[in-house]
Specification:
Largest sheet: 6 strands, mixed
Number of helices: 3
Shape: globular
Low-confidence stretches: none
Distance between the termini: 11 Å
Structural class: alpha/beta
C-alpha cells in the first residue's frame, strides 16, 4: 500500500459541494492499494502511521504521534499514487489494485482505523472529490508497505 500523510491543522473532503468528511488537527491520509496488497500491508501501514512521531511537543520537536495529540484521521482513497510515469507523458495506473479489490482494502483499512483510533473520517471511494487542507509545517510524508 502507498500512502501520503499530511500533518494538518484542518482538512475536509467535498463531493458535489457537500462535505463528506472533515477533521481539525491530525493527518490527512491519501491511500492507494496496489496489486498484491493484503490486509497485512494495511495493518502494518496503520500501525506505523498511528505511532509516527511527526507532531511537535512543547519544545517544538517532532516527538508526538497523532494518538498523543488526540488528532483525527481523514482517509481519502487515491489510486493515482500508483502512477507509473516512466514511459510517455500519460501516467499508467496498472500497478493499482483493481477497483473491487481497492475498495475492499480501503474499507478494511478504514474499519481497522476506526477500531484503533477515536476520530476517523473519510472521503468517498471512487468519487470526484475536492480535498481542502491547511498543511501544518508543511509536513508531508510518503509511506509504503509492500507485499512480500
Amino acid at each position: 500500500m502507498i500512502s501520503v500523510l499530511q500533518r494538518v491543522r484542518q482538512a475536509r473532503v467535498e463531493v458535489s459541494g457537500e462535505i463528506v468528511g472533515q477533521i481539525e488537527q491530525g493527518l490527512l491520509v491519501l491511500l492507494c492499494a496496489e496489486q498484491g496488497d493484503t490486509e497485512k500491508e494495511a495493518d502494518k501501514l496503520l500501525a506505523k502511521m498511528l505511532k509516527l512521531r511527526i507532531f511537535s511537543d512543547d519544545a517544538g520537536k517532532m516527538n508526538l504521534s497523532v494518538q498523543d495529540v488526540g488528532g483525527g484521521l481523514l482517509v481519502v482513497s487515491q489510486f493515482t499514487l500508483a502512477a507509473d510515469t516512466k514511459g510517455g507523458n500519460r501516467p499508467s495506473f496498472t500497478g493499482a489494485a483493481a477497483p473491487d479489490e481497492g475498495r475492499r482494502l480501503y474499507d478494511y483499512f478504514v474499519a481497522e482505523a476506526k477500531a484503533a483510533h477515536p476520530v476517523v473520517q473519510t472521503g468517498q471511494f471512487a468519487a470526484d472529490m475536492q480535498v481542502h487542507l491547511v498543511n501544518d509545517g508543511p509536513v508531508t510524508i510518503p509511506m509504503t508497505m509492500r507485499a512480500q
